[in-house]
Amino acid sequence: MRVVIQRVTSGSVSVGQQVVGEIGVGFVLLVAVSHDDKEADARTLASKIVGLRVFSDNDGKMNLSLGDVGGSVLLISQFTLYGDTRKGRRPSFVDSASAEIAAPMIDRLGTLLSEAGVPVQTGVFGAAMRVELVNDGPVTLILETKNGKML
User: Residues 79-90, buried b or exposed e (16+ Cβ, 10 A)?
Assistant: First the structure.
């Protein structure tokens, strides 16, 4: 699995004219699933995301986690993170999992985050979405797993 994490002061996702998910302080997660991702990948990512200490403490140092700041997650599926642009000008998405594999994996990641005490809002899998966010810092990280291990 591949995740782009953006630390935000706020974020929302809309489908058409309707807001379907909205958070304040926390993370906007753009998540892609590959063909061989398994439950262990979702578990590894959830644990890492919950424990990341990237929010500022009273001294201005990145030392606090989502739980420490009462943060939330806005979880957005984004198969284009596995886009391969090495050949030509049009990306290939052959490394992205099919909807039948990806949707349950993204749902599982959301469930694991929720079970860890993090409030989770989501987009709509497969829909054309408009994501708005206020990146805080800006702080943006990329996480990736393979076979349940961080790369």
Answer: bebbeeeeeeee
Phi and psi torsions of 110, nearest 5°: -60, -40
Residues annotated as part of the active site = 78-80
Q: Residue 21 burial by CB count (10 A; 0-12/13-18/19+): exposed, middle or buried?
A: buried
Structure tokens at 123: 């987009």
List beta partners, residue 144.
2
pLDDT number for residue 44: 98
Say which DSSP state 57 is in. Answer: -
| Cβ neighbours around 74 below 10 Å, total | 27
| pTM, 2 dp | 0.95
Rg of the chain on CA atoms, in Å: 15
pLDDT at 75: 98
Type and span of the H or E element at 99: helix 99-115
Answer yes or no: are the C-beta atoms of 102 and 109 closer than 8 Å.
no
List pLDDT tens digits, range 84-141: 999 999 999 999 999 999 999 999 999 999 999 999 999 999 999 999 999 999 999 9
